Amino acid sequence: MKNYNEIHLSDLINSLKNSYVKLNPEFLHQLFKTAAKGNNINRNKELAFKLDCPYNEEFNICPNIGSWVYKGCAIPFQALLRILELTDYPLDSIEKHIVFIKSGRKKGTVNIKFPIKIGKELGNVVGHILGDGAIDKKYLQPFYTNSNIDLIKEFINNMDYIFGVKPRIWTQTKGNFKTKSKWLGRIYSFENLPNNCQIGLFYPRVCGLILYQICGTFAYGKKKQITEQIKNFNKEFKSGLIRAFFDDDGSINAESYTMRGFQDDKQLLIDIKSLLTDLDIESNEVHFYMKHGKVRHFFNITKRKNFLIYYNSIGFTSIKKQERLKLLSFGR
Questions:
Q1: For residue 116, what are the β-bridge partners?
Q2: Is 66 helix (H, G, I), strand (E, B) or coil?
Q3: Is 51 helix (H, G, I), strand (E, B) or coil?
Q4: What is the pTM of this model?
Q5: CB of 83 within 8 A of CB of 35?
Q6: Which residues of 170-189 are buried (b: 16+ CB within 10 A; e: fewer)?
Q7: Is the distance from CB of 127 to CB of 239 less than 8 angstroms?
Q8: Which of the two ends of the chain, N or C, has the fewest CB atoms closer than 10 A to its terminal CB?
Q9: Domain 120-330 carries which CATH code?
Q10: Helical H runs in 164-227?
Q11: Which residues contact 227 (CB under 8 A, 6 or more apart)?
Q12: CA 52, CA 79: separation in Å to the nearest integer?
């Protein structure tokens, strides 16, 4: 992926090759009419052959084309590419006519409003996944969990802004180093939440595929990294990423005048430090400590000038952390 400030449909061909696309019916009919060079769309044997679709000789009809054009079924992305080759329509010209995209026949749908901006919202999503989230190894579904309702709502809003999709929301008990959390059940609103619970957000596979296409494999199960794509993105993106990461995996102590970022993976912290440098924020070296027999890495941010830059250009969504940052930046 090049250093774009926005992503178009043509940039996502590799990630969408096995997906399905539903287009506006009027536009789809016009597209097929152009490809068939006439109105005889689902009875055009030559067109069916070009699209590698079966043709019913007995009834003189192509069921696949009929289901796409007249029944409103989503069309395989590969078939859509072949149709476009038969017309003068470039791929990006159909962006505004997309109703939804899904990774399989029965998979969850997304309603992306192209182009996808490389900005704070996308950076925030990536930062939260690097923090308290994941992308499942097997199904490539993005996941995020937190007990802070403000962070949960932030992730939901940004995923909706980018992908036009709502999550499946589950609650779970809070876990720790000794006990694993347990799922309590699915919820459909944040009213009457159980006390002392975590909230888990689950998203369709197609979101994971697109995130990988844009940002590289930055979160594969428990393995997380700052990819070359992320390193080359603009400051707006990096600002959103840092905000989310420190909301999840950072702390701020007004008594010791210190901000701290921590993680199990030392290299990830080193690369986070590099992103901070890109935003003109200095940070100290990475150190480690032992917790429950496990190595935990961390680095600190000190000095008021760094707090001021962080406050003005990044900030926290966590209200408590933002209040402490304000205190470090401007004093009592």
A1: 7
A2: helix
A3: coil
A4: 0.93
A5: yes
A6: bbbeeeeeeeeeeeeeebee
A7: no
A8: C
A9: 3.10.28.10
A10: 205-215
A11: 215, 216, 217, 218
A12: 8
